[in-house]
């Protein structure tokens, strides 16, 4: 199985179209089609079922792809070890995280790392947590930034910081009336001031009749927020679902509905306007932000150095809001 065969089959399996795969590989469609035919003839078996649209893998094709990915992962680990020997003058670092964390949390650490190791190329994958876990296990990313829980049989996860969820309510929502003593501002959260620490959590059941904006099913925050509402004795009346927290935030700010927003977005989202925030009683409103990577996998020196930079930035408070 050559590198070219692996690249062509994996790209075609991903794109499910000869024309799309050919464009991605910078070859003509006929040449790609002939290449796959020659490979299937060499193997004496069909890898792709061309009778469907889009095309799909045959059982033999699935086996080929699984083996190809394992070979790719082994080659990448070898390249990482060779890179280590070159004193990090070159190399690749592949990090995964959610879109909002990519925009809010990664910039400082990426900028700092690039100053120290300018020859290292950094790739960022922005996806939901389930896809990041899959990418980490397959070896297509080195590590990812996210919240648990993590399967400790598969992943090694190190705590970096604590993330706190807040109930976000549109400022002009009538339900806010009479609850002023429970309200905190974005400034309180950014500064972690006395006001924030002295303010008591709100009784979430007071908002049971309101309409909510939640993350889509399949995302960790979806089940978490349902659990938090259930603890308060109600199921949320959901008016909209969103894939991105930034969208959820904007819709709440526009007065469409209530939502649950993590403090990292509040602190580092660079928003000039904010809804009203309330602290939550639930233990589930607090979760650990971790850096995770696959167990029993060679972790390159590049990745280890990035983790070190990330920990140092958090430890010396460079993620904290400053006036």
How is the topology of this model organized?
Elements: H1 3-15, H2 18-25, H3 29-43, E1 48-49, E2 56-57, H4 59-85, E3 91-97, H5 99-104, H6 106-116, E4 120-126, H7 129-138, E5 143-147, E6 155-169, E7 183-184, H8 186-191, H9 194-198, E8 211-215, H10 220-231, E9 237-242, H11 245-253, E10 259-262, H12 263-268, E11 276-278, E12 286-294, H13 301-315
Parallel strand pairs: 3-4, 3-5, 8-9
Antiparallel strand pairs: 1-2, 5-12, 6-10, 6-11, 6-12, 7-11
Strand runs, count: 12
Number of domain modules = 3
Mean pLDDT: 89
| Order of H and E elements | HHHEEHEHHEHEEEHHEHEHEHEEH
Number of helices: 13
Tell me the name of the CATH class of the largest domain.
Alpha Beta
* Helix vs. strand class: alpha/beta
Shape: globular
Query: Proportion of β residues?
Result: 15-25%
- The first-to-last residue Cα distance is 58 Å
Task: Describe the structure in your own words.
This protein is of the alpha/beta class. It folds into three domains: 3-67, Orthogonal Bundle (Arc Repressor Mutant, subunit A); 95-160 and 293-315, Periplasmic binding protein-like II (D-Maltodextrin-Binding Protein, domain 2, 3-Layer(aba) Sandwich), CATH 3.40.190; 162-287, Periplasmic binding protein-like II (D-Maltodextrin-Binding Protein, domain 2). 44% of the residues lie in helices and 21% in strands. It contains 13 helices and twelve strands. The strands form three sheets. Strands 3, 4, 5, 6, 7, 10, 11 and 12 form an eight-stranded mixed beta sheet that branches. A two-stranded antiparallel sheet has the order 1-2. A hairpin with a 6-residue loop joins strand 1 (48-49) and strand 2 (56-57). Helix 1 (3-15) crosses helix 2 and helix 2 packs across helix 3 (29-43). The chain is globular. It starts with a helix and ends in an 8-residue tail after the last helix. The model is unreliable at 316-323 (pLDDT under 50).
